Here is the input.
Amino acid sequence: MSNDSDALIKGLRAMPTPEPRPGFVDRALANAANAGSHVPAARNTAERAGRRNVALRWEIWLGALVGGAVAAALTVVLMRPTHLQPAERAITLALNEVRDIDVLIDSDRDLTDATIRVAVTGGVALDGMANEHIVDWRTDLGRGPNLLSLPVIARKAGAGQLVAVVEHGGKTRTVMINLTVSGSAAKRS
Here is the structure.
């Protein structure tokens, strides 16, 4: 303890303690003994009956049921896993190799008149469209898995990407595939 605290404690102990008023001890003990019985017995019985009636009221149980259902629904909505795209995959191509790259677009509902936009970057191009880096078209996608097979040709060594974007109703879904073109030419068979 510090010197200030010691001095304060000594000062408080040195102060005179006032005597309690006459009858204080008797009143305090009587109040303590009667603490649970300050309400008349009839009133205690009525309060217990009122509490019992509240527990038997159907409105209380209906409210509890609805509240529990809302809490359960919110838990399911907030805790459900989000639909994450699979981890970006990487594909290696040999120089001048042409390969069909499959892009899986999984839809939770039918998408009528959706826009599909495909972009290629780096050393790859869409086979048959060497000068086009972005191609888009409108189509219908069915509910469930939709497989889009895109012919890609490796033009020069290095990294590249194939990006497919589906747009429908103001929402977009993107699938990215990393491509690597090795410096060695593809073997002809």
DSSP finds four helices and eight strands in the chain. The beta strands are 89-95, 98-107, 111-122, 124-126, 134-141, 144-154, 158-168, 171-185.
